[in-house]
Design brief:
There is one protein chain. The chain has helices at residues 2-11, 16-38, 46-65, 70-74, 78-82, 88-110, 114-120, 125-150, 156-172, 183-192, 194-202, 208-233. By secondary structure, the chain is an all-alpha fold. α3 (46-65) runs parallel beside α8. The chain is globular, with a radius of gyration of 19 Å. The two termini are 24 Å apart.
Length: 235
């Protein structure tokens, strides 16, 4: 498992993908941070920054996941993985952790922007810490979705677009609530939506149920990926 993790982590930086992701994420998050806080004057809101960052996940996170399994199929190295001494769960988790490491490290680097808030004002530390935790957890769930989609196709573009489509569903479904009168449907949408559970953290509220939801969503999609390869191994 450790060997697969190291190989995948290294692969991000022997190809342009890792550098492209880091550059896009840091530039976009820096611009968003500046626009939502430093340039917003009296209307500045760090909560708006974190919420907007969640929408950015739809575009940037598929860059990390689109090649994880798709590339194995394209290069015909998939059978080597399936016959390796590592369990299927270990293989899937190793690839997931490699992508998550790149994401988490990049986000933590972007958190250096917060020093400007402490230099020029007195930000709410509870909101910063809670929202940062929620970003890391929601990012894990989104990456798990991408891992699953990557296992379904050998085309990286299809993998990226498929991941984007599912992330759009999870992230943007809460917008539909304003157009739906049925209370049952609204409650179902709220339960599914990643954003609805994120809002509490941007208000400085530590939501344990949201943490369980994000971790459960990550587990479900990683488990589905294992099932895909378990079926493929015996076919």
């Amino acid at each position: 498992m450790l060997a697969i993790y190291k190989r995948e982590l290294r692969s991000y930086f022997v190809s342009p993908i890792g550098y492209i992701f880091v550059a896009i994420f840091l530039i976009a998050s820096g611009l968003l941070f500046s626009y939502c806080t430093l340039q917003a004057g009296s209307g500045s809101s760090v909560s708006t920054y974190f919420s907007t960052l969640m929408y950015m996940f739809i575009i940037v996170l598929p860059l990390l996941t689109m090649k994880l399994f798709s590339d194995e199929k394209k290069m015909r190295t998939e059978q080597l993985l399936l016959t390796s001494p590592v369990s299927l769960m270990g293989m899937v988790v190793a690839k997931f952790l490699a992508a998550y490491t790149v994401f988490a490290a990049t986000f933590l680097i972007s958190c250096l922007d917060f020093l400007l808030l402490y230099q020029f004002g007195t930000p709410n530390s509870a909101i910063l810490l809670g929202s940062s935790l929620a970003i890391l957890l929601a990012g894990a769930a989104c990456i798990a979705v991408g891992v699953f989609i990557s296992a379904l196709t050998e085309n990286q573009l299809i993998s990226a677009l498929g991941t984007m489509a599912i992330l759009v569903f999870f992230v943007l479904t809460s917008i539909l609530n304003g157009y739906i009168d049925n209370a049952v449907i609204r409650s179902v949408i709220n339960w599914v939506s990643i954003m609805e559970r994120f809002v509490n953290f941007t208000s400085g509220i530590f939501d344990f149920n949201a943490i369980v939801y994000y971790l459960s969503l990550s587990f479900v999609f990683l488990f589905l990926t294992v099932r895909v390869y378990d079926k493929r191994r015996w076919n």
